[in-house]
Each structure stands twice: as structure tokens, then as C-alpha cells.
Amino acid sequence: MVGVVVGCEKTTSAPASVSAAPQPSADLEPGGAFLKYAVGMRDSRPGVKFTVGAAQFCGYSSQQLTGTFQGPSGTFDFADRLAHIWTNTKKYLVAIQLQGPAGAAGFDAAKSTLMQEFAVVIP
Predict the structure, then answer these.
(1) Which CATH number fits the domain 27-114, given the four candidates 1.20.120.450, 3.40.309.10, 3.30.360.10, 3.40.1000.10?
(2) How confident is the model at residue 23 (pLDDT cuts 50, 70, 90)?
(3) How far apart are CA 46 and CA 49, in angstroms?
(4) Per-residue model confidence (pLDDT) at position 24
(5) How far apart are CA 56 and CA 47, in angstroms?
(6) Is 110 helix (H, G, I), strand (E, B) or coil?
(7) What residue segments make up the domains of the chain, in order of their start?
(8) What is the C-alpha to C-alpha distance for residues 38 and 36, in angstroms, rounded to an integer?
(9) Is the distance from CB of 15 to CB of 25 less than 8 angstroms?
(10) Cα(16)–Cα(9) distance, rounded to whole angstroms?
(11) Model pLDDT, residue 9
């Protein structure tokens, strides 16, 4: 897992964080993998409300989820960029996740940058 802290702070809250990690999708097709991710998110984030949109991605299926959820210190905004990556031997669901305190300065700019297409290198 890769973690990066972005300059997206509210004066009384911690900075937003970004993580990207390949998640084996149990050899599900893209629709099933996206659904499994959304169900897991619903079960792990209290009061989550989100919208799902298709995201263009060169040759791979991709979605973007954006919304809010309740954390221990208040409401958080989030944006998740999902890509279903297949290889000759396995399928993966790659999730780029951005979250931060609701209304945090810089969140929208970070979201715009991080939710764009990204490079996929398969050795």
C-alpha cells in the first residue's frame, strides 16, 4: 500500500490522506468487483452517502465514487477512483482513495488531480 499526505487541512483537523492499493477481486468481472467494493464501503463507513460515476480509463473498466461519511471526529468527504485491472493470470481492483474533513481547503483541487487517469505498469 502506498500512502501520501496531501496539503488539504482544516485548522482543527488532520490532513487528508491518499492511499492506493491493489485489491484482489477474487477473479470477479468489473461489475461484480465494483459492487463488492461498494458493499464493503457501505458496511465499513457509518452513514456513508455516495454517488457512482463512470470514469474514462484507457482499456480498463473504471468508476469514481464520491460522497461523505461520519467518522469519530465528524463528517468526512471522500473520492475513490476504482480501476479493474486484468492480467493474464489475475484480476485486481485498484483503488485510489482520498478523504478529508468535510469542507477542507484544497480537497477539491486534490480530488481533481488524483481522480485523473494514472499509469498502469504490469511487469
Answers:
(1) 3.40.1000.10
(2) low
(3) 9
(4) 61
(5) 28
(6) helix
(7) 27-114
(8) 6
(9) no
(10) 7
(11) 32
